[in-house]
Every structure is written in C-alpha cells, then in structure tokens.
Amino acid sequence: MIAGKRGRIILLEVAMVIISLIVIIPLLVMLLGSFKTAHEASYFNLKLPSEWHFDNYKKVFEDGKLDIALMNSTIITVMSSCITVISSALAAFTISRKKGKAYNVLFALFSLGMIAPFMVVPTISLLKLLDLSGTYSGVILVSIATSVPWSVMIFTGFIKGVPREMDEAAIIDGCGPYKMFFKVILPLLQPVLVTNLLIITVGVWNEFMIPLYLFNSASQTTMPLTVYNFFGQYANQWNLVFADLVMTALPVTLLYILFQRYIVAGLTSGAVKG
Amino acid sequence: MKSKKVDFYPKSFIVPAIAIYGVFFILPTLVGFGFSFTNWNSDNLTNWFAIKYNGIDNFKYLFENENFNLALYNTVFFALVTTFLKTVIGLLLALGLNQPLATKSLLRGVFYVPNIISIIVIGLLFSSIFSMTGMFNQLLESIGLSRLAETNWLGDPDTAFGTVIAMEVWKASGFSMIIFLAGLQGIPRELYEAATIDGADGLKKFRNITLPMLAPAFTIAITIALISGFKVFDQVYVLTNGHSDTEVINTFIFRAFSAEQYGRASAMNMILFLCIAIVNLLVITFLRKKEVEL
Hints:
The structure holds 2 protein chains of 2 kinds. Chain A is mostly helical.
C-alpha cells in the first residue's frame, strides 16, 4: 500500500517533469540560439552552439540601441511601479477602513478600471492637450492609471485582514494619521507590498500597447518595442533576434527568481482570501 | 466643548491614486464613450469642441462591416476558449504540484516563468517555432507526421488563430496554476482526514472537498482570464498582425487609429467594454451563486 502510493508519486513526478519540457524547450532554444551564428540559429534546435558567440549581445546592444531602450524601460518601470504601489496602498487603507456609500462607490470606480479597456485615442488627445505627448511623464502617468485598479484591489483584500486594533494601538501611542500609516501599517503590508511591486513592475516592463501608441520617436523606445523593430531589421538573423529577446526577458525573470516566494505568499494572503 | 477630532483615515490618502486614475483613465474613458457618437478624426484630434455628433453612424458602420464582425467573433472566441483551457490546465498543474514531489518548487517556478516574459518576446519565439522550418514542424516530421509538417501554422487561415490561442494558453496557464495552488493551500487538512475516516475515496474527496473549497479561486482565475482574453492585442499583433483571419477588436482599433478614424476607434472600444462588462457580470453572478451553494 505504502509502496503503491510512493510509486504513484514517482510516476506523477516523472510525468510533471516531462510536461514541463513544453515550457523549458522553447526558452532553451531561444537562449542557446542567442549564442549561435545566424546559420546555426536558423535550425531552431537544442544543439549547443559550435562556438559561443557572446559578441551577438554586443552587436544587439550597439545596432539595436538597447542602452537607450534599457534606460527608458528602467525609468518608466521604476517610477510607475513605485508611485502606483505607494498611492494605492494609501488609497486602499482609507477605503477599506472607512464606512459609507461614498467609499463603496470609490471602490466600484477602481474595480471598473480592471475591466474597462485602455481608451487609446482620447488618452492621446488628452496628453496632447496637457502637452505631455511623447514624454516620459505621459507614459508614466498612463501606466500608473492602468495599474492602480489592480493594486488597490490586492491591497484592499489584504488590509481587511489587518486588525483595527493595530490602528488603535498606534493612535493611543500618540501617532498622527501619517505616522500611523508609514510607521505601523506599511510595515505590516510588507508581503503584499512586495507582491504588488513585483506584479506591477513585470506588467509595466512588458507593456507594449501603451508605449507603442504614446511614444513615437526612435529615442523613446522601450525594451519590448526594440524586439519588434529589431525583428523588422534582422528578420533572417535569428541569433541576434534571440539575443534581443533574452535581453528583454532577463531583467524581469531575474527579479522573479529572486522574489518568487513572495508572489505565492502575497496572492495567498491577499487575492484568494480577499 | 467641541474638541477638534483627528481623522485617522484621512481622505487625502485617496487623493494621489484617484487623481492620476481619474485624469488619465476615467476621463479618457468617458470622453471616448461620448466621442464614439461623433465623426472624430485627425482634423479635430485635440479641438474637442469642433467634433460633430453623428448619432449611431459609427456603430452602424461597424456592425455592417464583415471584417469587424469577424474581429468581434474572434475576440469572444479567443476569450472563451483561452479561459477554459487556462482554467483546466492551471487546475491540473496545481493539483499535480500540490503533491509531495521532490521537484515541486522548481516546477512551479518553471510553469510560472512564461508569465513574467513579455508577450512580444514569446510571440517572436513562437513565430520561429511555428514557422515552416520551425521546431514544431521538425517535431511532427520526426514522429512521422510529414504531411502535417508542411503546414504554415501562422500563415494558413485555418490554423493561424489556433496557434495564437495555443501561445496564450502556453504563456498564461501558470498564472491560473498559482491562483489554484494558493487556494489548495488554504484547504484545512482536517477536512480530508475526516473524509478518510468516513471512508471517502480520492474522487469523492475531490468532488466534495477540493472543488467546493476552490470556488473562490475559480472565480478569480476565470474572471482574470476572461478580462485579459477580451483585451487580446499583443499576441495577435506580433504573431500575425491580424492577417490570416486572426483580426481581433484591438488590432482593428489599431488599424482605425492608423487610418485616423478616431470616432470609429472609440466606438469599437465601447463595444469591447460592453462585451467585457456583460460577460463578466454574467460569469461573476453565476460563480458567486455557485460559491454560496457549495
């Protein structure tokens, strides 16, 4: 009986490992391909490169102007995700603590942002009116606006689980509202804060539609946009295309590997129970 | 005597979030809804007062346009099919990786990784895999299906949309898996122990404990998959650019935008919004009812 159960577990383990190859193999083809010659890469297989061409990356950086794209993506991602997370933590705190119709309406308004599609033309027209067209600020503000609803939702779910006694203790100790939030509540929100920061960071980094519509000069490209431009330029040189793909995917993948346990923990405590 | 009361949950906390969200999301959304009944075009992009009301002309044009009807149909089809597949596959992966496997943490990471990577990256990777000489055809060839191996998966109208769907499911099933794993970990072990004592077998335990306890996870996984399914854009844009009968609403909007038909693009956005709102309302009402019943 015990042996039977262990046998089943081993069988399941083997099956899951085989299934995971469906995910691993394409990614491996991309990674290996980025070190090959154009000819070798065009076979799209799992053979190791006959010679490791690290200079593919150098070429991609120089010809594809990846340094500018990397900087643009970093500025936009860091600014958007930090402002989103802080502003939505603040908003979620008051919304989930206060009672009254107005706060339910506010919550519903934020929920609306999750289902309403991004309105391209009015947004562009608005940015033109505000003289923010084609600027970092424009892209950052729009990215924040589209991320805030999700962020508020995840925070609200979590904050409902933080006992009010915490607030009361802080108030008795003589904290004002700001001190209470930043010194007492925010540290308690740490797990969901990290999850949120990760999810928003990944989302903004990978965003394609917003910079595609809102940026229009070559110096304003972001990493995901380089992929498309690069492919148009080097359609037959898959080694270079793969190198660009790896460069776009690498930063967020590393970030995820470093912090992955927070994602599961944060989703468990926030989203699913909330 | 009236003392000044300190509000410990100040309204000012809401201001930054609602200000940015209000100006850069709600306002354009409302403007878009209003201007979907106008002849908005490049001549009056920012001169909002010069835009002329033209009733339901935009909508009439769209619903009489065969290509738009195909885009609408494709979008709904994409949303429903990918949601179904992501939910089933995500659940199966979660059930498997909730067992005491030696490699479970590693495999959870592996299945989630495609979620982290930009769809543009994955799209180009898939366009290499599904090209005529790509890995997929090589695989078919090696297992003896050489007739199938001559398919142009992304160029043939019969297979292109299926390939786009396959990519989305490949990419996003890991997200549903994480939601279900989180749900599974919230089920108290005592329930299973009690059921074992009562003599319930594996299947019975799954039907009577696991599934009902996972109801909230189902609601979240399905809702999120539906919303992102309706908003499909990057996937089609990078894989087929809307050719080979793979047009969806958002690629159609992109084309209307390029043609400077802004009123029409806004009308499409409104149709898309209504689709998402109606389908989600139906699904959430249904799932919440199920949650209570279970």
